[in-house]
Design goal:
With 235 residues, the chain is mainly beta. Helix content is 11%, strand content 38%.
């Protein structure tokens, strides 16, 4: 009987101990590290042998941009210049023998009845000129150019007169600055409407414009020669 009681007590103690242990939460057990495997690269098949291709390299020669004056093969330095120039002209004109009886003459040139003064009503041989001029260059790519010049002008404005003239010349230009030419001059003169004209001048360049200074001479068989000078601005 005593033995049975002891066994029961022991069983009860074991039961309580087991229940207490079961009631306590179980401590987490450390997990062993999981090994990480590196990805294995797939084997690359060797590329098929490509045939060798010869590459030809072309060498292109690009001319350098032209800057400033161009040096010709003759060694002369040609400054840049426009082919067509035009501008305003202001000048002075002198008429020789303007008051001499050289008009209304007979076939032998005698018995003249009037002068240029009488015919055009001018009071003095000194007249002002106002006009417009254009010059075209035929470039020779050296020190010499061929030029063609056209000019229309009005004389006598200071005397309340309107005497138009027109001129056309052909000539030469030296070193893009010095001009000389010869041509025809037309005036509203019934007896002598056309004359020869010769001109010479210098046209220096100032920045992007030109400032021409020209001298002209118009001969007349009756002695009424005209001569003068003009200045102006050309672009």
């Amino acid at each position: 009987m005593k033995t049975q009681t002891t066994a029961l007590l022991t069983l009860s103690v074991l039961t309580l101990t087991t229940a207490t242990v079961a009631a306590q939460p179980a401590e987490p057990q450390p997990q062993p590290p999981v090994p990480v495997l590196a990805p294995v690269a797939a084997p690359v098949a060797p590329a098929a042998a490509q045939p060798a291709v010869a590459t030809a390299t072309a060498t292109v020669s690009v001319p350098a941009a032209a800057e400033g004056p161009r040096v010709e093969s003759t060694g002369w330095t040609r400054p840049p210049g426009a082919r067509l120039l035009h501008g305003i002209r202001l000048g002075y004109n002198f008429i020789s023998n303007y008051d001499v009886m050289t008009r209304g003459c007979d076939s032998d040139g005698n018995n003249c009845t009037k002068s240029l003064k009488d015919e055009f009503g001018i009071q003095t041989p000194h007249t002002m000129i106002l006009g417009y001029e254009a010059m075209y260059r035929i470039v020779g790519h050296s020190w010499l150019n061929v030029i063609m010049v056209g000019n229309v002008s009005v004389a006598g404005l200071e005397q309340s007169k309107f005497i138009p003239t027109a001129s056309g010349l052909i000539g030469a230009e030296l070193n893009h600055s010095f001009q000389i030419g010869i041509g025809v001059n037309l005036t509203p003169d019934k007896e002598a409407p056309s004359h020869m004209i010769a001109a010479v001048g210098w046209t220096p360049k100032v920045g992007s414009i030109y400032t021409p200074v020209h001298f002209f001479f118009v001969p007349d068989p009756a002695g009424n020669h005209r001569s003068g000078a003009t200045i102006g601005v050309t672009w």
